[in-house]
């Protein structure tokens, strides 16, 4: 089994993906445990002091003015977690919960939260046992932490609430912990806040989105190149001298290089390169690198935000190097919310231009000799007409999801928390947007592959490899048939990286960024 060392200074995007999606085992380091024990000592010193300290010996949020006596502090922690585990809606995806828990454990391992070592070790044991708290979609405003989602996880740490066990069955958490040999934790001072006051849900979904969009943008370069080929477009507009020397945006330079690589040695392109049938290709073909490249540049910005957050210690209050426990506002999700909203915008734009290219392949007046809707016997057969409708519906949904969540704010907690980021909501809609983008690109790939096969000349070595990859799951052109399973199969090949891998087997296709999340820049 793959293992991931829970070192707060080196945990990477690759590590998060390995734990969230591949169930890699998390290993605690001796250095982390020593740091946790050292910082806990500072909290226990303050817990015995006469002066109230927020989160240690007081109530929470708008109730922070009440000093809580020692006899009630264990109950205070239980009450905090129980009351905050108030989520509603559908359960979120298992990979999101696992990413959230890993990232919360990473922050606990910094020592800044002041928890006892047994809290961290038990939290990691739950993760390693494959026990997944049931976390509901609504309950975080992206400020004061992802409160309800994180509280649902903390509730399981206490032996309460519901979980998915390692077989995916919903069960009582106490039963699941007992079956795994894990003893629930009785929380002490500060630990309730430490387990709930973080941006881990937002960050986890951003990191998952970075990995997904990395693959999808390269798939978009491939689908665009295949559409150019299918529509008798030109590759001359993707020559390197037209990009970095003239307009030095790195993303569009990279996307153009990918498209030029995909079209290299294409007999289809060569068959009409001396023709004057078109003076210029339509924008959806000619400007594909500019659009997908701009998305790459936006992804780089989001990657920088995520990299910095991946080195943060988000809690309120936090334990400083001096041993002082200090209140702060670092739990505010604005940096993440803005990045998440930006990615939803560029996802919608990449989907939109892909749909425009697909539309051209459907239209006999613009498709350069292809049959209407790529139908086998147009009139008797409808071809890919409704596949395009479905694609258009998903693009429309993506555009609605591009409306930013971060410009909204609903004051809460008796106006103590009077400006919130809505970053969790931004992350949830980004996941839906990326799901739609995957399907939209799959429809374009499906249509472009079909169109290429209808041409008299073969495609390039790269596009031929992609077509052959699709043909391992779906047949080529022919009379009308039930398309939904075929579109689902191509969507799966797009999502899991098979499409990009098929191209990379023949040529070096550039990705967006290094997948490792570097330290703060």
TrEMBL record:
Keywords: Histidine metabolism, Lyase
UniProt-listed InterPro entries: Aromatic_Lyase (IPR001106), Fumarase/histidase_N (IPR024083), HutH (IPR005921), L-Aspartase-like (IPR008948), Phe/His_NH3-lyase_AS (IPR022313)
Subcellular location: Cytoplasm
PROSITE patterns, per database record: PAL_HISTIDASE
Gene3D superfamilies assigned: Fumarase/aspartase (Central domain), Fumarase/aspartase (N-terminal domain)
UniProt cross-references to Pfam families, sorted A to Z: Lyase_aromatic
EC number: 4.3.1.3
Class in the EC hierarchy, top level: lyase
UniProt entry tagged with the keyword Aminoacyl-tRNA synthetase: no
GO cellular component: cytoplasm
Record has tRNA-binding as a keyword: no
Coiled-coil ranges from the UniProt annotation: none
Top-level taxon in the UniProt lineage: Bacteria
Catalytic activity from the UniProt record: L-histidine = trans-urocanate + NH4(+)
Pathway(s) the chain acts in: Amino-acid degradation; L-histidine degradation into L-glutamate; N-formimidoyl-L-glutamate from L-histidine: step 1/3
GO molecular function: histidine ammonia-lyase activity
A GO biological-process term: L-histidine catabolic process to glutamate and formamide
Listed PANTHER family: HISTIDINE AMMONIA-LYASE (PTHR10362)
NCBIfam families xrefs: hutH, PRK09367.1
Family, per entry: Belongs to the PAL/histidase family.
Name of the featured protein: Histidine ammonia-lyase
Organism, as annotated: Nesterenkonia natronophila
Source species taxonomy: Bacteria, Bacillati, Actinomycetota, Actinomycetes, Micrococcales
Gene that encodes the chain: hutH
């Amino acid at each position: 089994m793959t293992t991931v060392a829970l070192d707060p200074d080196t945990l990477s995007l690759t590590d998060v993906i390995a734990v969230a999606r591949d169930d890699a085992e998390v290993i605690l380091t001796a250095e982390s445990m020593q740091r946790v024990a050292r910082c806990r000592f500072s909290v226990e010193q303050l817990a015995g002091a006469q002066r109230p300290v927020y989160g240690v010996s007081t109530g929470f949020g708008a109730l922070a003015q009440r000093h809580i006596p020692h006899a009630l502090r264990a109950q205070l922690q239980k009450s905090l977690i129980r009351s905050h585990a108030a989520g509603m809606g559908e359960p979120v995806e298992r990979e999101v919960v696992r990413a959230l828990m890993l990232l919360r454990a990473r922050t606990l391992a910094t020592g800044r939260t002041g928890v006892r070592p047994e809290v961290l070790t038990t939290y990691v044991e739950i993760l390693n046992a494959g026990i997944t708290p049931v976390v509901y979609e609504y309950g975080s405003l992206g400020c004061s932490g992802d409160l309800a989602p994180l509280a649902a996880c903390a509730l399981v740490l206490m032996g309460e609430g519901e979980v998915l066990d390692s077989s995916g069955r919903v069960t009582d958490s106490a039963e699941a912990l007992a079956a795994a040999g894990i003893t629930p934790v009785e929380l002490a001072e500060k630990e309730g806040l430490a387990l709930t006051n973080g941006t881990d849900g937002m960050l986890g979904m951003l990191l998952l989105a970075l990995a997904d969009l990395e693959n999808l943008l390269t798939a978009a370069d491939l689908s665009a190149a295949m559409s150019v080929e299918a529509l008798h477009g030109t590759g001359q507009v993707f020559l390197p001298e037209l990009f970095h020397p003239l307009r030095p945006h790195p993303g569009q330079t990279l996307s153009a290089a990918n498209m030029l690589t995909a079209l290299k040695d294409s007999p289809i392109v060569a068959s009409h390169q001396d023709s004057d049938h078109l003076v210029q290709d339509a924008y959806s073909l000619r400007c594909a690198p500019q659009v997908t490249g701009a998305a790459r540049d936006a992804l780089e910005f989001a990657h920088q935000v995520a990299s910095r957050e991946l080195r943060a210690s988000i809690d309120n209050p936090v334990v400083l190097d001096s041993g002082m426990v200090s209140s702060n506002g670092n739990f505010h999700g604005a940096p993440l919310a803005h990045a998440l909203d930006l990615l939803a915008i560029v996802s919608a734009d990449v989907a939109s231009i892909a749909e425009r290219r697909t539309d051209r392949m459907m239209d006999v007046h613009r498709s350069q000799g292809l049959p209407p809707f790529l139908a086998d016997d147009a009139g008797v057969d409808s071809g890919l007409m409704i596949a395009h409708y479905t694609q258009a519906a998903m693009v429309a949904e993506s555009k609605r999801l591009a409306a930013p969540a971060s410009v909204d704010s609903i004051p809460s907690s008796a106006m103590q928390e009077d400006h919130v980021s809505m970053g969790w909501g931004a992350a949830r809609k980004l996941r839906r947007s990326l799901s739609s983008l995957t399907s939209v690109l799959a429809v374009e790939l499906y249509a472009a592959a079909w169109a290429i096969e209808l041409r008299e000349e073969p495609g390039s070595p790269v596009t031929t490899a992609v077509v052959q990859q699709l043909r391992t799951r779906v047949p080529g052109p022919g009379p009308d048939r039930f398309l939904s399973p075929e579109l689902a199969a191509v969507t799966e090949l797009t999502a899991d990286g098979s499409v990009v891998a098929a191209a990379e087997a023949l040529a070096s296709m550039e990705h967006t960024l290094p997948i490792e999340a570097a330290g703060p820049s």
